[in-house]
Predict the structure.
Amino acid sequence: MKEFLHQGGYAFFVWGAYGVTFGLLAAEVVALMVNQRTILARVGRWVRGPTQGSAKTASRGNE
Amino acid sequence: MSINWFKFASPAAFYPIAGRMIPWFAGIAIVLVLGSLLWGFFGTAAQLGGSNPQKEYYRIIYIHVAGAWMSMWLYLVLAGWSAIGLVFNTRLSFMMAKAVAPTGAIFTVIALWTGAFWGRPSWGTYWDWDPRLTSELILFFLYIGYIALHSAIDDTRRADRAAALLAMVGLVMLPVIYWSINCPDPTQCAALHQRSDPGSIHASILWPMLGVTLGFWSYAFAATFVRLRGIILLREADSAWVRELLQGDSGR
């Protein structure tokens, strides 16, 4: 195990590359989940909202 | 068997289909990437080559090549949906293009970063302004340009078309990157990428590399579809089907 983590002395490069790669992908997954929840809540509010007007009248900018 | 593809071109029809496919793509991505990396790390030699060997750092190849391929492929997808959107004026195509751009940008960063971390131990430098690195960096700026231009224009339809045009103009970069890596004349190219044709790579490295690539591709599908569903909901918020969908509050 120790030898595996050591990667023949190139641990910094190997794990630096892999760490950032999977860190970025994990960050994207988290961002997507947060974003999806926000959108569902926001559109849900427009749909069920007390103001019976069009959802488009609510300011939503460029999504 | 004939399928009416235009039926799926409606956001209302594609929204639930994308939702059903996301867990499959996510699952396939996890299995393929993990399996391939286990093989790639434990089923291969610690060193490659003779007099000037690639040491353990060559294992960056699995994510580097996969990331670089995905960065180019996703740009092709982005430009392709942009073109289809401009020609047929189909709403879903523009949404697809917009949904794929951030994932493509992330894979471009991955290709650049892992390339730097591979370049340092093998070439002695993190960065060099040679054609492949520079053109990959320009590809990253194209993704950022597409995203920035789209978000800078308030009117969604205008933003779609302006950004789509930019994406198609940027398409000229793809052959430049491709041929600066897969050099047609090896004597004209720098040392490392010239042996990058699949035939000269050992099977125990080639297969994990392809496995990670397919895994990343599957991941890209899942991430794009999640983002696409969000875009569809926001843009179709006024429509009856979204109203029905969200009245139940389940969001499925």
Observations:
- Chain B touches chain A through 47 residues (CB under 8 Å).
- The longest helix of chain B spans residues 91-123.
- Chain B has a mean pLDDT of 86.
